[in-house]
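[Help] Beginner question about ligand-bound structures

Sorry if this is basic. My supervisor gave me a protein sequence and a SMILES string for zinc ion and asked me to "get the holo structure". I don't really know what that means in practice or what format the answer should be in. Inputs are pasted below exactly as I got them.
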Amino acid sequence: MDHRKTRGNTTKFFKMFIDAHSHIDLLNDYKKSISNAKEENVKIVTCGTDIISNKKILKIKDSEQVRVSSSKNVGRKKNLGIEICLGIYPTEALKLSDKEIEEEIKFIKKNKEKIIAIGEIGLDLKENTKETIEKQKKNLEKFIELAKEINKPVIIHSRKAEKECIEFLEKLNYNKIVMHCFSGKFNLVKKIIENNWMLTIPTSVKNSEHFQKIIEITPIKNLLCETDSPFLHPDKKFPNEPKNVIESYKKIAEIKNISLKETEKSLEQNYTNFFK
Ligand SMILES: [Zn+2]
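Answer (accepted):
No worries, everyone starts somewhere. Holo just means with the ligand present. The predicted complex, written as structure tokens, is below.
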């Protein structure tokens, strides 16, 4: 990547942490959170959740690009910029007609050069009863077809529908998958690893045995970190913000018994390989 400057025989890295899943459009002062993230060398990936949110994050990305290219230290800051994913959150998709979903899919296709993945999409059985599952699957399938067509990974939400979600994704035969904030059983985590999908570890891992155990059993090559800002604050506060992603890195370093620097390098490599 651009920020690796070769001097003589040594390659110099400057540390870059990546928040691979956030919703900065939901933060009251997102500009402040973006600048806080830059201070801490955190790159932000933000996901759209509905039609309005998709438009908003596209605008944030465009304005951020103008700001970065007109600033002095372009090369370094460019890498710390914002990447976006467009999608419709499963419970939001249920509120839309088939025609509205088709139109949003066209909108995403039109903006495919500006995005790194399709998300946040998936299945949710916490806020919804079983009766909606077929409709949710129909919606999810449309987004997976879109991802196949434009060749982008997908960011998957699977709350209380973890098993259904994995089985359905396997049936659709798509493999560029990030399971975000995965709360399912460990036999399902093993399935994710076998499928060579990615898992993002949220900052709430600081106080969560479940996510600590996921780190333990998952090879580092399948891991990324996330904040899900403004949610899942490491100390159960509100709002969370991307700079806090370092808490997830620290837990991975501690549990895998490697240095923070090594963790940062491995996860940056994962990010580059996965979203290339
Ligand atoms: Zn999210």
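A couple of things worth pointing out: Residues 21, 23, 47, 120, 228 surround zinc ion (CB under 6 Å). The longest strand covers residues 115-122. Feel free to follow up in the thread.
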